[in-house]
């Protein structure tokens, strides 16, 4: 409040109406100021903790990342409705650390003769003509200090769906797993529920007949799968 | 409490709800923006990774094709019969030049179902799901895939089938980038198996197994 108010109405306190001395008197409501400030400070700390924890929580920061792609390619149509195997496009997933994003040539295998005038595919046709790759936006991006090998996981019988979710139902690909270290370690410590026979690795709807962990334990023993939890396994 | 202070406090409380609201939204909705990295660490290191852009090169990509006329070690592919399916007189080889066993056939079946079945169908008769969709869309530019179990394909030398996978034929593109030479022979062998099965008679079934077919 402006200081010249004091002369006329110090503290605006109704119970203090007779006091016309030219001095500042704390109004009555300030008696509780200390408690109020303490309460507000406590609330502020709780607020900040919730906010920071919330911002860093993978569910809020990483899961649900679904960037808009330059071409509105629908996995739900190609992998879901048409049932094309993941490996038709992601050729290197079984033999290389990286699951490749397919070259435009793979799109043109079919789209050379199907939907040849669709405006949705204009960028694909342009890329095929010029040889300039399409700027697909990467969805699943681990930190660069982490080594991950797709081939190792696929060959061990970890299904695509275990980490990538039901891609065959995604119109726009979305990250469903936190891809955090604790999440990786969770499976490395107990891989059984996520192991399946190799022939069903890309099968999105596959589920074991009995308990997944029982089958997983059997597969793990058969194939001598021993996921390491050493630091140097991923941070190499 | 004086009104102005009360108003300021109320405004602060209202403003404090905005970050919480954003948090709630990010918890429940898909996000088009990547994660905000408060602590940058070494998450994104400044080197070029597979399939990334690279402004240093004229074509703008970091993954380069081998220069024309060069061959990587171990990639010479000099054996014409194995890598191109042709004999010394440049005609297609009649028989598959590698050993065909059950394991190879199963590999061929798996690869066939991934790369060939979308168009040619699981049984090879040319009516795969992509063909079905193209027909449903009434695409004028679409040519129905060949029935791989037809007499015309049965009569083709195995080297011809291998070559078709490698180079493509008519509207079918090359599958060289998707199917390795070893797997092309496995697929060729599986196509032969499909041809046998599609044109089999009850006499081809061992007598002991005929009961299972109800014959």
Task: Characterise the protein shown here.
- The complex is a heterodimer of chains A (236) and B (215).
- Chain A has 236 residues and is mostly helical.
- In chain A, 41% of the residues lie in helices and 0% in strands.
- The model of chain A has no long low-confidence stretch (mean pLDDT 87).
- Chain B is built from seven helices and no strands.
- The mean pLDDT of chain B is 88.
- The relative contact order of chain B is 0.10.
- At the A-B interface, helix 2, helix 3 and helix 6 of A face helix 1, helix 3 and helix 4 of B.
Detail the topology: elements first, then pairings.
The complex is a heterodimer of chains A (236) and B (215).
Chain A lengths: L4 H4 L24 H24 L1 H4 L13 H7 L4 H4 L14 H8 L10 H9 L19 H7 L3 H5 L16 H9 L22 H12 L7 H4 L2
Helix pairs in contact in A: 6-7
Chain B lengths: L2 H26 L51 H5 L17 H19 L8 H8 L14 H4 L3 H10 L13 H18 L17
Helix pairs in contact in B: 3-4, 3-7, 6-7
Kindly summarize this structure in a few lines.
The complex is a heterodimer of chains A (236) and B (215). Chain A is built from twelve helices and no strands.
What is the C-alpha radius of gyration of chain B, as a whole number of Å? 30 Å
> Main beta sheet of chain A, described?
none
Tell me the name of the CATH class of the domain at 80-204 in chain B: Mainly Alpha
Largest interface: A-B, 51 and 50 residues
Number of helical elements of chain B? 7
The average pLDDT of chain A is 87
Question: Which terms would index this structure?
Answer:
heterodimer, A: 236 residues, 3 domains, 41% helix, extended, B: 215 residues, mainly alpha, Cytochrome Bc1 Complex, Chain D, domain 2
């Amino acid at each position: 409040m402006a200081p010249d108010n004091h002369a006329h109405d110090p503290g605006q306190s109704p119970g203090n109406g007779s006091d016309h001395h030219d001095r500042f008197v704390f109004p009555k409501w300030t008696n509780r100021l200390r408690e109020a400030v303490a309460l507000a400070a406590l609330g502020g700390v709780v607020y900040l903790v919730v906010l920071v924890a919330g911002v860093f929580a993978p569910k809020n920061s990483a899961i649900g990342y679904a960037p808009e792609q330059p071409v509105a390619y629908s996995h739900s149509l190609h992998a879901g409705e048409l049932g094309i195997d993941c490996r038709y496009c992601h050729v290197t997933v079984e033999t290389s650390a990286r699951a490749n994003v397919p070259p435009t040539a793979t799109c043109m295998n079919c789209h050379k003769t199907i939907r040849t005038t669709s405006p949705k595919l204009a960028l694909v046709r342009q890329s095929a003509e010029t040889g300039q790759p399409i700027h697909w936006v990467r969805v699943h991006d681990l930190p660069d200090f982490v080594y991950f090998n797709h081939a190792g996981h696929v060959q061990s019988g970890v299904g695509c769906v275990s980490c990538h979710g039901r891609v065959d139902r995604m119109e726009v690909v979305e990250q469903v797993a936190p891809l955090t270290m604790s999440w990786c370690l969770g499976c490395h410590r107990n891989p059984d529920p996520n192991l399946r026979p190799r022939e069903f690795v890309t099968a999105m709807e596959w589920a074991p007949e009995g308990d997944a962990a029982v089958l997983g334990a059997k597969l793990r023993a058969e194939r001598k799968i021993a996921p390491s939890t050493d630091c140097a396994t991923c941070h190499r | 409490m004086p009104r102005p202070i009360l108003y300021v406090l109320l405004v602060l409380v209202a403003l404090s709800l905005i970050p919480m609201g954003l948090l709630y939204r990010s918890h429940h909705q898909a996000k088009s923006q990547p994660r905000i990295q408060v602590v940058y660490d070494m998450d994104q290191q400044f080197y070029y990774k597979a399939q990334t852009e690279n402004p240093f090169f004229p074509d703008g990509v970091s993954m380069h094709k081998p220069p024309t006329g060069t061959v990587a070690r171990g990639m010479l592919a000099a054996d014409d019969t194995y890598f191109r399916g042709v004999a010394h007189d440049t005609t297609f080889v009649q028989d598959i030049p590698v050993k065909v066993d059950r394991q190879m056939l199963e590999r061929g079946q798996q690869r066939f179902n991934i790369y060939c079945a979308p168009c040619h169908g699981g049984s090879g008769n040319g009516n795969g799901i992509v063909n079905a969709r193209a027909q449903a869309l009434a695409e004028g530019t679409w040519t129905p895939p060949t029935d791989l179990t037809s007499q015309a394909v049965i009569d083709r030398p195995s080297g011809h089938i291998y070559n078709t996978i490698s180079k493509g034929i008519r509207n079918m593109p090359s599958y060289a980038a998707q199917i390795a030479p070893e797997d092309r022979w496995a697929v060729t062998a599986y196509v032969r198996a499909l041809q046998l099965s599609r044109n089999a008679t009850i006499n081809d079934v061992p007598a002991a197994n005929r009961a299972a077919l109800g014959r």
